[in-house]
Amino acid sequence: MNRFKLVMCLGILIAIAGACETTTTLQFTSSSTPDVITYNPADEAMYVFVEQNRSQLAEEVAQGHGEHLGAVTHILGCSGAQKKQVMSSLQGQYSEIFNKHSNLAVTQSLLAYRCL
């Protein structure tokens, strides 16, 4: 995905997340069992981003840098030094994060690094 498309996608996800201010419970289903999570609007943006960019994101987390990884730190609310720290932490936890089978499980792992 080129940089322009990535920025546009991220902007749309953030706009969607910002339009909702309530906490809601959603059900995402996998091929076997449903998972129910309670989330804030940014959580849905993260789930959609992971679902659409998981393979590229996994590659960048393994490398410790990249545009998709930067977008994740933005969704997590990180800035400045926090971004570098989160990128490094995610890289160190790569196996634990990306060996999960469902996008929901990966999303939940990433959301644990929220900076807000």
Shape: globular
| Number of structural units classed as domains | 1
Number of strands: 2
The percent of residues in helical segments reads 55-70%
Question: Helix-strand pattern, N to C?
Answer: HEEHHHHH
The DSSP helix count reads: 6
The largest pleated sheet is described as: 2 strands, antiparallel
How is the largest sheet built, in terms of strand order? 1-2
- How big is the Rg? 14 Å
The unreliable regions are 19-34
Structural class: mainly alpha
Mean pLDDT: 79
Distance between the termini: 28 Å
| Relative strand content | 5-15%
Brief write-up:
Helix content is 65%, strand content 10%.
Descriptive notes:
The protein is mainly alpha-helical and 116 residues long. It has one domain (3-111). 65% of the residues lie in helices and 10% in strands. It is built from 6 helices and 2 strands. The chain has helices spanning 3-19, 41-63, 67-75, 81-92, 94-98, 103-111, and strands at residues 24-29, 34-39. It is globular. Mean pLDDT is 79; it is low at 19-34.
